[in-house]
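Recall that a protein's primary structure is simply its ordered list of amino acids. Everything else, from secondary elements to tertiary packing, is in principle encoded there. The following example makes that idea concrete.
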Amino acid sequence: MAISAAQVKELRERTGSGMMECKKALVEADGDMEAAIEALRKSGLAKADKKAGRVAAEGLIVIEISADGKEAALVEVNSETDFVAKKDEFQDFARQVAKRVLASKPESIEALLEMPLRDGEDTTVDMARKELVAKLGENIGVRRFELVQTDGTLGYYLHGSRIGVLVELEGGDEALARDIAMHVAASRPLSVSADDMPQEVLDKEREIIVAQAQESGKPENIIEKMVEGRIRKFLAEVTLLGQPFVKDPDTTVGKLLDKSGAKVRSFRRMELGEGIEKKQENFADEVMAQVRGD
């Protein structure tokens, strides 16, 4: 049967697929719009599965805050390129994922992917993700999330769309909490204080410092003092309370908090793509891969 331009236009608007793909789907479905949509969705899911192995280290860090300011979600959603990360469809998807995390408080990424992306709709987060992969032509992944609930003061800071921080204070105000969040974004502390530094991190650093000190050839009692001094210096550099405050390096974060009668209960810092081994590709090979539809 003849397929009209209006039918093709409607299918494009409803699915985001290309014109030729829409026309082909309508022809094969004998003009049945719903059947054509279903065929395109199945095709899109197949394409998404094919792209699943490709490295996605770009994307967005998104923060969603509850109306009362007592709950917050911090989410990383990845794409292969910054170009796709800037597209409205990708950004809307990432924001909706953060809203779902805040609203439903999933216990894991797997649980999140099975939840509806929007209230009252059947499309799950994972179905929407796969449809976006088919539409934008890149692997897209919901990598991780953090959820904070507090009866204290919640602060947040986004550095562009690449670093996000949530800070939970006891005492203080939102301005102080935001300043601390900004500091965490810039200075990358490993823990709030020496007391909650992961033991494995401390043991590894001590091992390195001991090995360096022993090369000096000095007596054991001197080496022991050198090691303890360097450990104290290390803790001052990597614990939040010991670091010089970024907006006033003459004071530490700990002293800043003391002046306000506030304490940091916790912080969450998320940087886009951290820990992902990025694949280096020849540009010409990358173009050919896209031409082939790999």
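The mean pLDDT is 88. The CA atoms of residues 50 and 64 lie 31 Å apart.
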